[in-house]
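Researcher: Let's run the pair from yesterday's discussion. Sequence first, then tokens, for each.
Model: Starting with the first of the pair.
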Amino acid sequence: MIDEALVRELLDATDDDSALVLVEGRARVAGRDALDSDDLRGAAVVLTRAELVDRLGTAHPAPQELTLVAASLNDAVGKLGG
């Protein structure tokens, strides 16, 4: 569900309020304005770009760090349902 490409997409977003969200069982990156749209109404915010940068300690992490974050987030999201 959450892979390195999604984490990279969030990190590459230009707005710190952009977020990785879950909507209808799928993960995607959305800007703050999009979170108020009908398409994303009820979406669960997993992590914002600002939180990701804080977690990584840098806006320019090594690829393996993105892989580790993606695995951690995927594990946490997988545990939400049960």
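Model: Moving on to the second of the pair.
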Amino acid sequence: MTEHVSGRDVLRQAKELYAPYRDTVAQAEQRVAIIRFQPAENDPPEWKAKLEASKVSAEQKVKSFEHLGFEANHVVMPPGTTRAQFAEVLERANQDPATRAIIVQFPPPAHLQPLVQRMDPAKDIDALTKGRSPYTACATAEGICRVVEPFAGDDPVIAVVGSKGFVGQGVVTTLRDQGHRLMELDAGDDLRRVRDADIVVSVTGNPGILGPDHLRPHHRLVVDSGFVPQADGSVKGDVQREAYDIPQHLTPVPGGIGPVEMATLMERAVRREVDPGAPSWKVEPRPYLTKEQLAHGDQEPSKTVVAGATAGTAVAAGQHSQNQPRPGQQVSGGNPIAQAAKLRTGAGNGGVGPGTAGPTAPGPSAPARTHAPNPPMPPAPGGPSR
């Protein structure tokens, strides 16, 4: 049974962590500008769907920043917005000392996209200014990598589908800087190659691009960052619903990476404007099975390990993980999905329930690599001019 990694839980955690800063922010009367674009009635349906997703995201950002005590200036640019009009809105936000951050919802119309680079980089909280922002990746990409990290302690292969897109590039750069092994896939590539990966991250925004032909029970985590509103009010992600029960863990759509993005932006804002040492939200470690463990389900119990989300977590001598078979207990063969679920949840084993991280044995040894579990610290208040 697939366990969902809930972004809503992450956002709830972030709101609790940063609630104590609300009064300080509110007293400073600080603003965040959130700029988005409206489609025209005769625009193609695909473009309308993208801007509808942009609208949903902008509205979520308004709620998140207002929760922190910021005034959210939600600017809606009408159809037919000219370069001069967009430039004027950006310049006004650049010059306003009370506006501490600017976010332009993507995608803007093609003829306006180059103007985004006129944003004051010091106010670029979402890494839109091509290397001039204080942040190396957008909030979505950082959030994805932080969701991946607890599942990547044993040097897995991580497939990034949509690796050349804006979010995909941020994911690739961040994971590569952390020393992970990557499989980069984009338009024209054979996506069935993800079968060979241990973790799959999909950031294409192409509904249903991954399905049962791509995902496998040995995928310890599948991150679906797609979000495309449908005419009937539903939302589709990159992963087909028919494949939701295949991997061991999955970020659902909706309720997955979207709220994680909001939590990341909230953390950045608090660290930037109030407390550079503010605590980070975290995804709790969860047990998972490696490809090798699933392939050798009939191995000796002493060699059967349910890999924890953090490598190097040792089990004391003579003490067994709650999710690990006890001495003499055999791992049953049969359906690998059922077997994985049984071992993950400790069913019939006195183990922990779904989604609860109990003590874990160390995963397979991995070569030394640069490990950066914490997000980058922004400049302290009073740093570069805004």
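Researcher: Give me one sentence on the second I can quote.
Model: Residues 298-338, 340-386 have pLDDT under 50 and may be disordered.
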